[in-house]
Design goal:
Strand content: 15-25%
Shape: globular
Number of strands: 20
Helix content: 25-40%
Length: 611
């Protein structure tokens, strides 16, 4: 009997050992630290989605029992350029470090968070210990971060439209270039702009019966800015705009062959990029610089702190790198500041909001700008002796998304189809001319209930598309935008009124009166631009608010982009281009002139800096 019991126990122990050596999880509850198994994950491939900027970001996560094998982005509709860095970097970091404790990419936070959320959902399904993954502790000795010192012919602060245009131009002239960018992505405000570009273009304008010239363009720009701008700089902008357009085409940027009138542009000379928002400009610049090899370098997550001045001349830049290291950049020839304005800096915009045009511009006031537009370059140049001009000239724009302030989730007609839309307040009534100046529209909008309006459009006009073919300017399918509450769509005006909460009778009367104005060619608000009546449904309403959009003041420059001191003398070695400068747009920037500014003066700054 004793021998039998011993044999029986040996068999049981053997079976038990075999079961415990099986790597296949036997329960969905198996997680890190489970008493049932030492497996960290349930082997397999898992998919999940999370909401990004423009829709769902879908990921696939593959795991074996011990580790995360791969993370792949299967589908997304995020903005090209902005989303490129997180889509590449975050999956690589998760796999390399086996962690969810991954920093978001500066400038692409929403996309970054969407990727992380979708991956986390997959790992939950795979039975992972999410808390452990989010709080992964690295017991290794911290890696010593060495300071960095580099030299190039031209050092550029800011990788937005102006900075990258300058880099392309300077390298075209044979100079070596280092560009630093404090965010994790390139593009600045240019990449999230409407992508519209003003300039006289007889080939497109004359068939439409439009008479135009550089002289007339310059006159409208100067007068549209209330004659506050420097006329010499205005002339540089407007007389070089067409050459700038041709230069853009030569590096691969494509435009619509239809001329339009951008919001607040005051005339039909607007060219629209065929790429989403301003992504086409940035992609073309980056592709061009990539082809230059070691002649061009872009250092991301590197914040300019101060300029190096030697005997009154600017000879370099001191910056802080991604890991806190000191970055010293020496310029053999020149430094270019191209960091944009200060619309995202509440303290600065409050300090300089002295024109009397706007009420408080505190933290509760939205901005259309990306988070990095905080006036860094203006302060750096001013500390080095540069004079500032027109700092009190701050522009608001009526095209801000009420949820975020960003100029996103709008239909193409909102920005460039001024002749095919109307603005109504929460009562369903028009309150201003839609083709007027931006400051006039915003001033009137701020007086409306909740400071809110709806841009109303119909399916009329030769550019109308079927709803299932329509996308917003950022590429979001319009049906998805409707589901998210970014636009409202109805077959009839009465139904639309119900969705936006106004009196159906008032909205219908408003549209009928506008249609009569189209026939008459005039209305009580002084609108000048008409093309179609609003007759054919479905009708679309896009909610919009006013937000801080552009700061017309900044570094004082001459017509060669050289920074000037308080005595009007050139500061040797220092140039500036783009929204960081003042003296060009005066008291009101015309819609469609910002991209022109970055191109004309960015290109010019690069050429001058390379000498």
């Amino acid at each position: 009997m004793k021998k039998f019991i011993s044999i029986l126990l040996a068999v049981v122990l053997s079976v038990s050992m075999i079961a415990c050596s099986n790597d296949t999880p036997t329960s969905n509850e198996t997680t890190i630290g489970s008493e049932q198994s030492n497996a960290a994950y349930k082997t397999g491939k898992y998919t999940s989605s999370a909401k990004g900027n423009n829709g769902d970001v879908k990921v696939e996560v593959e795991v074996d029992d011990a580790k995360i094998v791969s993370v792949k982005i299967l589908e997304h509709s995020e903005t090209p350029g902005i989303s490129d860095s997180p889509i590449k970097q975050i999956p690589e970091t998760i796999v390399a470090n086996q962690t969810l404790a991954v920093d978001t990419v500066a400038g692409a936070t929403v996309t970054s968070k969407a990727i992380l959320a979708a991956v986390e959902s997959c790992l939950v399904e795979a039975g992972a210990d999410i808390n452990a993954l989010k709080n992964k502790v690295d017991n290794k000795e911290p890696v010593k971060v060495n300071d960095v010192e580099k030299t190039a012919d031209v050092v550029i602060v800011g990788a937005g439209g102006a900075g990258l245009a300058a880099a392309v131009s300077a390298t075209d002239k044979g100079a070596s270039v280092i560009v630093i960018e404090k965010m994790g992505v390139a593009g600045g405000n240019t990449i999230v702009s409407g992508g519209i570009y003003n300039c006289p273009d007889p080939a497109l304008q004359k068939p439409e019966g439009i008479e135009d010239s550089p002289e007339f363009y310059a006159k409208q720009t100067w007068e549209g800015g209330d004659k506050v701008g420097n006329k010499e700089l205005v002339d540089v902008l407007c007389f070089n705009a067409y050459d700038g357009l041709e230069w853009l085409k030569s590096i691969g940027i494509k435009f619509s062959d239809k001329i339009s009138q951008g919001a607040g542009s005051l005339y039909r000379r607007t060219h629209s990029s065929l790429d989403k928002a301003g992504t086409g400009y940035i992609k073309a610049y980056l592709d061009n610089l990539a082809s230059k090899g070691d002649k061009a370098e872009i250092m991301y997550n590197t914040k300019g702190e101060s300029l190096i001045v030697d005997n009154g001349a600017v000879v370099g830049v001191i910056a802080t790198g991604a890991n806190g290291e000191k970055v010293t950049l020496h310029a053999n020839k020149n430094v270019i500041i191209a960091t944009g304005g200060f619309s995202a800096n509440v303290e600065m915009r409050q300090k300089y909001n002295t024109s009397g045009k706007w009420p408080e511009l505190g933290a509760d006031v939205l901005t259309t700008n990306t988070p990095g537009i905080t006036g860094d370059g203006i302060k750096m140049a001013n500390d080095a002796g540069a004079d500032l001009v027109d700092m009190e000239q701050i522009q608001m724009l009526y095209l801000a998304n009420p949820k975020t302030g960003a100029m996103t989730k709008y239909t193409p007609r909102c920005l460039a189809g001024t002749d095919k839309i109307i603005f109504v307040n929460t009562s369903g009534e028009r309150f201003v001319r839609e083709d007027g100046r931006r400051d006039e529209i915003c001033g009137n909008l701020l007086k409306q209930d909740k400071g809110l309006m709806y841009i109303i459009e119909s399916m009329d006009g030769d550019d109308a598309k079927k709803l299932d073919e329509m996308t917003l300017a950022d590429g979001t399918p319009i049906k998805e935008a409707e589901a998210n509450g970014d636009v409202f769509i109805s077959d009839t005006l009465e139904e639309l009124a119900g969705k936006i909460g106004c009196d159906p009778a008032k909205l219908k009367t408003t549209v009928e009166e506008f249609n009569k104005a189209v026939d008459a060619g005039k209305d009580k608000f002084g609108r000048e631009l008409y093309s179609v009546k609003l007759i054919t449904g479905p009708f679309i309403a896009t909610p919009r608010m006013a937000a801080v959009h552009h700061t017309m003041g900044g570094i004082k420059i001459n017509k060669e982009c050289q920074a000037l001191d308080k005595d009007g003398k050139v500061i040797k070695g220092l140039l500036a281009a783009g929204e960081v400068t003042g003296g060009i747009h005066g008291a009101n920037r015309l819609g469609g002139n910002a991209i022109v500014d970055t191109v004309v003066f960015g290109k010019l700054a690069g050429e001058v800096a390379a000498r």
